[in-house]
Amino acid sequence: MFAMDLVFKALADHNRRVILDRLFEHDGQSLQELCRHVEFSRQGLSKHLALLEEAGLVVSQFQGREKKHFLNPIPIQNVAERWLAKYSDAQLTAITALKGALEEQDHE
Amino acid sequence: MSSNSTYIYETYIRAPAERVWQALTSAEFTCQYFHATHVESTWEQGAPIRYKYAPDGDVAVEGEVLEAQPPNKLAITWHVLYNEDAARETPSRVTFEIETLDQQTRLRIVHDRFAEGSVVLPEISQGWPWILSSLKSLLETGEALPPATA
Known about the structure:
Chain A is mainly alpha-helical. Chain A is 64% helix and 11% strand. Chain B has helices at residues 17-25, 27-33, 84-87, 121-141; strands at residues 7-13, 38-41, 48-52, 59-69, 73-80, 92-101, 104-112. In chain B, helix 1 (17-25) packs across helix 2 (27-33). The chains are: A mainly alpha, B alpha+beta. Chain A binds chain B through residues 3, 27-28, 56, 59, 61, 63, 68, 70, 72-74, 77-78, 81, and chain B through 5-12, 108, 110, 125, 129-130, 132-133, 136-137, 145.
């Protein structure tokens, strides 16, 4: 699988996005610490973390005997640069304006 | 007293480890992707390291080489001088880890040992991701990212 496919796959899951949000709030958490801040099982958390690591969105480092997990935003930035550079501001603005106009009509 | 915050950023670059090392340690590269700074050091343990705005210009960041193992590991202290409050802080530590994996090079930056209440720390999450993306772009396409507006 291409690196970018892995990023989209990882981000496509609500629980995995929750894990990233928890790491954004407090970076460098162990499995035990993260477990207290999510509403799913430790097994589920381990699986999600493995997938997030594979996608490069989470990197881990041993600090003493504890494995700590860190949010790595670089793959998201690479995705943003790949796509945002492609669709220029002008096009985006036109689409956003159209969407706004259509939604306004809906409400009338 | 120091904070136990650690920031880790990682990217994969389609270039040999030696070129990544060269990009980190030579001014002709850093001036293209590292906020136009020129890096200088002898890269020996204990040697000073400086990031200057021009070859003879003001020093933006200074530090000391803690460990240098070309092309795999470089650890330096990080003393920010471009901001008066930051300049009064004790230096933090930046470690560059370069590893060859599957014909790509993994570059990991670990930034830690921040002073308590560091003013440098909140800037880190803006700074390194952009620098890493710009470095990746430079080595893979020959062009760095356009200057950051932030």
